[in-house]
Amino acid sequence: MGEDRRLVAVVALAQGMAAAHGSREAWRAAAVGACRALGGSFAALSVWERELGRLKVLVNVGELAEGEEEFPEDESYPVHQFAEITEFLHEQWAGGGEPNAWVETAEGPAAGRRPGYCHQRVAALRRRGRGCCVVAPIVLHGRAWGELYVARPVGAPVFERGDADFATVLAAVVAAGIAQTERLEEARRLAFTDALTGLANRRAVDVHLEQAIERHRREGAVVSLVVCDLNGLKRVNDTHGHAAGDRLLERFGSVLSLCGAMLPGALAARLGGDEFCLLAVGPPADQVVKAAGEVCRRAAELELGDGVACGVASTEDPIGPVRSARRLFRLADAAQYRAKAERSTRPVVAGRAGPDDPVVRLADEPSQEADGERRRFRGRHAP
Hints:
Layout: H1 3-18, H2 23-37, E1 42-49, E2 54-62, E3 76-78, H3 84-93, E4 102-105, E5 108-110, H4 119-127, E6 130-140, E7 143-153, H5 161-191, H6 202-219, E8 223-230, H7 233-240, H8 242-260, E9 267-272, E10 275-281, H9 285-300, E11 308-314, H10 325-341, E12 348-349
Parallel strand pairs: 11-12
Antiparallel strand pairs: 1-2, 1-7, 2-3, 4-5, 4-6, 6-7, 8-10, 8-11, 9-10
Helix pairs in contact: 1-2, 1-5, 2-5, 7-8, 8-9
């Protein structure tokens, strides 16, 4: 491959990673770009999970062997079986060398490789019908992050020293792309995360709720929203200080997260101040109400607080057509306001009547029959 073609390949790899939306796309772009750049038939990207002592494969691309998957759930290898990734970096790079790539073949060491560590690589090449591979350590923030692996089939030209040097360059480009992806994901996380509780924030709820209502309109998916107001926060702040109030918010956030786990895929969020919510797409309304009841029960047991006022609105209940996220939110909020006004220790559910309770309904919507009653309730956000 000429220098111009290699430069084009480097640019293409960098552009592919820059255009990726999220880590998985970035990993795949890295492997595909490196595979094309080196004329390989297969490529993989793996991360060194230090705490587990293993190399975990993130993505496989190209001609996959039996048992290989593009995004494997749990394809990993004990790092001691591939000691070069640790010993090479620790002994040579830390001592002033460079984290260069190396070549392995199905016949043994090649392209300047030191003998002694190749047996696992060689066995893997033979087992999968590959003739050679080039392995490039990926270094991120001054530490070994993982490796880039590109292979060719039996009968194809064996990688040479120049290919290994080029793989070193590609690994550096991949490392830069991974660092950029991590920065962007951290920025997204901060933009959609409540700093105090670690839950999603109002911005995240708005985005997910709009998407959920679109699914409801398109597919009829059940969308349910639980809105909670933590009682007694002002009293705790005034009496015990804001640090105690923050601890109460954090503890309730943990309660909400725990109860939200009862609903597959539910989003637990802090809307701001003492207001929280759970957004569930798919689970039946009764299951959501049950989870909301558990929120109320556990919140009542929190030290210092005075429990929680909880309102629920679900498209599965008789609340009329839900064509906008705003309407479902207002219904849940109105139900929560009623729970707070009545000091209810249980969730109030829009569209349902309790033993002595009227149906919760917005004042500006057409009333509908429910349990023989036609009543209205004006929520605090209704016009």
